[in-house]
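User: Study the shape:
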Amino acid sequence: MSLFDIIKLGVGAAVGFVLCMLLYVPGAVSDARKAEADRLTAATNTAIGELTNEADKARVRRRLCIERGGMYLHETGQCGERPAAINR
């Protein structure tokens, strides 16, 4: 194997590595973030389910809703979208 062949292999490996990083890593990071968010949501829902008092459950859900930018609807106990006029 000549020096020229070794240089060609090195350059080819470097180009292949760069292409893999450009194509694979952004998708992997996005997938990892989504998986982590799903895991945290499941853990939060489990913790809320372990509360024994319905008033405590409602308070936790209300706080989570507001922190995420929603509007807690007391009548239904659900988190809804904040009307555009209220958004800042």
